[in-house]
Amino acid sequence: MLTARTIDPADPMKVALMSCAHTHAAGYASQLEARADVDLVAADPDGYGDVRGVRVVPTYDAAWNAWAEGPDAIVVTSANAHHKDLVLEAARRGVHVLCEKPLATNLPDAEAMVEACREAGVVLMTAFPVHFAPEVKALRTAITDGTLGEVIGLTGTNNGKLPAGRDWFTDVELAGGGAMVDHTVHLAEILDSVFGPPATVHAVTNRILYAERAGEGAETGGLVTLTYDTAGSRIVATIDCSWSLPADAPTWGGLRLQALGTGGQLQIDAFAQHVGGHDQWLAYGTNTDARLLDAFLGAVREGRAVDPTGEVGLRTVRVVAAAQESVRTGQPVALAGA
Amino acid sequence: MTTSPHPGPAAPSASPHPLRVGIVGTGGISRAHLPGWRELGAELHCFSQAGATEFAAESGATVHDTLEELLAAVDIVDVTAPTPAHPEIVRAALDAGKDVLCEKPLALDPAEARELVEHADRAGRTLFPAHVVRFFPQYAAAKRAIDTGAVGTLAVLRFERTGALPDRSWYADEELSGGIVMDQMIHDIDQALWMAGPVERVYAQQAIAGSDSTVRTAHVVLTHRSGALSHCRGFWGPAGTAFRYTFDLSGDGGQLQYDSAGDAGIVFDDVASARQDSGDGFLPDVSTLRDPYAAEIVEFATALAGGAPSRVDAADGALAVQVSHAALESLRTGRSITC
User: Fold this and answer.
1) Domain count of chain A?
2) Same domain membership, residue A253 and residue A119
3) Residue A137 sits in the same domain as residue A44
4) Is residue A145 part of a domain?
5) A235 chain-B contacts, CB cut-off 8 A
6) Is there a contact between A263 and B238 if contact means CB atoms under 8 Å apart?
């Protein structure tokens, strides 16, 4: 049970959306604004101006002070490098947090954020919307209920276009890296939810795709290979995190994961649900943002932790940090205590 | 076949003697080679430690009791024996002055594979490694598109190959077959080399099911000298696993994707497919394609006859062995291996 403030069930929850820098901010804002049980304020200190239809304030201070007693919860959708300051401030104020992935751009920041929220007794949830996709749930179930038998290998692809409209995504200082930082953690979280942390991490990267547009030093292609030791046997998994979708493709990208076992094979495509046609992509799948927010708000009201937790976010940052070390050294990295 | 209603003396043949080919090793893959030799009108000879009589009954080949006897009777040798026997048979055939088609891998040891290449050079004969996937039209089309710049500079390549463990015990013995990397994945390693060029680093991981050691998977990550990255994923699945192969090739100018499971030119519904023979999962179904095995054999014979050179040569076969061997070393040491 968490110790921070409780919220009167009769009152709407006061929620501040911290920054419009992330492309998910507009989606979260419209979901939250539509809820009768939420009173929303969105801070847009960078002046993006494209989160509309909600109460927008120009500074973080204005958002912290939008209510006399401050917000009950914040949703952190700033550039990755700014997550830490916002989350530590929330912990200091006893405010619950939903933080975009990756939780932080480096391991010490992520550890400090998790520790601060634990000490403050506030909810820290990491925003992995695809965790809530029914396809991902089906995969978790097929592995844990034994349908696939003994699982030995997985291949995941989280490929997309170079993120457009928000240049910080490919700015190494603000994002923490390129495609490997952006696109490894979703699949790492899914694997973590079934197998726990990996034993070893190996990664290779390049910057051939979108080389003209990506920020200096940001990788745009990458392959991250993980091993998991479970009950004496080994599982091998590779994540293709590349921004390899051509700019003129009809959709942003997608996430696929294939699991191989003694009981057969399963492949999921979390963004398969769409009506197609020449150059058409009409997505109609589950609104995972809505499910994510629902889980977060429920946890805050009930004062309990919720998956994917801050700890899961931290473990996926650890995977990315190990992958970056592997790229530097050219060798696999063993994760201590995995 | 003749369509003449008035049989008469046979028309003079362009070639006075049919091509005489000696098939050494008469297991599963030798059957896949038969249509190509038949298309060439070749006279078939065979020698094998086991199963030669059955093969001869199916194919009409002349059985020889010794390799020496076969070598004396043929122009070309087709080596389809188990992998560990390849080098000795290839050397004997080259020494007898024969051109040789040899199943992949040429040898398990890269030094020995290179030595076979040099041996062929010294003998002045052609050694042709049977990297049949280069003759699958999907891969050939992708290769042509890459070479004409259709996807720009290649960045990230993924290859998957899925099948059942071949139903012959020597394949499961890593010492004999080189395991899933050297036997199955070498096809995709060869594709990566063909499409994205030489490799400077190799990292590999493998998982073998504790509950059923015939079920195994391997992942190999190649860093090409060009900077491109390749991921090869092999899988020998449980009994009943259908053969499947996929690729996904991304460059800075576009993408090429293929999945044999989505290649739906012919679709039986569940009722009808339950009544179909679904194959053994060991070799792919090539019934809707220009038979890639026949295409490679015809291309080989054409090159030997002075026609266009083949798209694969002995050095390619040795390079595929070298990179696959580096992958095995990575499996053994857990390290990334410099090639």
Assistant:
1) 2
2) no
3) no
4) yes
5) 207
6) yes
Rounded CA separation A219/A216 (Å): 9
Cis peptide, bond prior to residue A102, ω within 30 of zero? yes
Looking at the domain that runs over B20-130, which CATH code has it been given?
Answer: 3.40.50.720
What torsion, rounded to 10 degrees, do the Cα atoms A166, A169, A171, A174 define? 100
Residue of A nearest to B338 (CA): A330
Start-to-end Cα distance in chain A: 26
Q: Which fold has domain B134-285+313-338?
A: Dihydrodipicolinate Reductase; domain 2 (3.30.360)
Task: Please report the pLDDT score of residue B1 as a whole number.
Answer: 37
DSSP 8-state secondary structure symbol assigned to residue A167 = G
B229 and A155 within 8 Å at the Cβ level: the answer is no
Domain of A189 in residue numbering reads as 131-289+318-334
CB A152 within 8 A of CB B208: yes
Query: Token pair for residue B300?
Result: 């080989």
Domain boundary residue among A128, A160, A195?
A128
d(CA B224, CA A179): 19
Residues 6 or more apart in contact with residue A49 via CB below 8 angstroms: A20
Residue carrying the six token digits 């696993």: B241
Report the Cα–Cα distance between both ends of chain B, in Å, rounded. Answer: 52
- Domain ranges in chain B are 20-130, 134-285+313-338
Residues A253 and A227 in one domain: yes
CA separation for the pair B82, B168 (Å, rounded): 10
A230-282 pLDDT per residue, tens: 877 899 999 999 999 999 999 999 999 999 999 999 999 999 999 999 989 99
Mean pLDDT of A306-319: 98
HSE value, Cβ hemisphere, 13 Å, CA-based, for B95: 8
Tell which of A200, A229, A234, A244 to mutate to test the B interface (max B CBs under 10 Å). A244
- Token pair 């204005």 is found at A62
> Residue B71 belongs to what H/E stretch?
helix B67-73
Find the CB nearest A152 among B158, B162, B215: B215
Amino acid (one-letter) located at A197:
P
Question: Are residues A160 and A108 both part of a single domain?
Answer: no
Closest approach of A187 to chain B, Cα-based (Å): 17
pLDDT tens digits along B200-210: 999 999 999 99
